[in-house]
Amino acid sequence: MIVVTTPTGQIGSKLVARLLAEGEPVRVIVRDAAKLGPDVRERVEVVEGSHGDADVLDRALPGADALFWLVPPDMRASSAEAHYLAFARAGADAVRRHGVGHVVGVTSAGHGWPKPAGLLSAAFAMDAEFERTGVAYRALSMPFYMENLERDLGAIRERGEFSLPYAPDRPLAMIATRDIASTAAGLLTDRSWTGQAHVPVFGPDRLTPNQLADVMSEVMGRSVAYHQTSHEDFVTGLTAAGFSTQAIQDMVEMHDAQNDGLYEADWAAATPTETDFRTWFKEAVAA
């Protein structure tokens, strides 16, 4: 039995589909079972609630051979680290109680970064909690998700522009969520692996934001420009969106670390995944 958290999210939904296609028995933990498609609901065991809740985990993990773990974001939490650790401690304790053999966690690339990295440092703290259990653990270590650009599709179509808080001429490491799901599915179904490791999962491109704009321009058949979001505008936008003061600090530290090269060591060591940016963007604009 494979237990999947966040089964309605960008990664979890793709993972569940892959596991079911391979005939694997799947149990999901979901806050609202109504958000599962009917084709999924009838083929999985459902435990309703939060996987940050020990009681919910005690209903979900009996008989589990493997667990897929992803902490859902909460930008109104007192801090990213407090949020991640609350989930991770509940999960790690439950893994011990129920003797789960294998855990695959979604985290960030850049383990060992010597400076604060906000949201990413919180993910590293989560990994450490699971590693302390002694369980066979694989930390899928990712950079920027291509799907983060979906929020800019309107501006790309209407104004021919997109913005991110990244340097325009520095390569931006990226990954498509379907490749994360594919990597996770491989580990969850073939559990011959032991021990603990960080697994960098990176797409095949090494493109700067300016070069991403060039690809977009070619796909769209019109000019698309990149504009780097200033620190002030970034903070103003987060404030307007209702992010807590600490969440804003966590996000600023994360982007500073990314701009300073947090991903470089893992990027150099990663085996490139299948989905390149051009393929992803063509599909995104056609959707």
From TrEMBL:
Pfam families recorded: NmrA
Residues in NmrA-like domain copies: 2-269
Superkingdom of this protein's organism: Bacteria
Identification of the protein by name: NAD(P)H-binding protein
Species assigned in the record: Amycolatopsis dongchuanensis
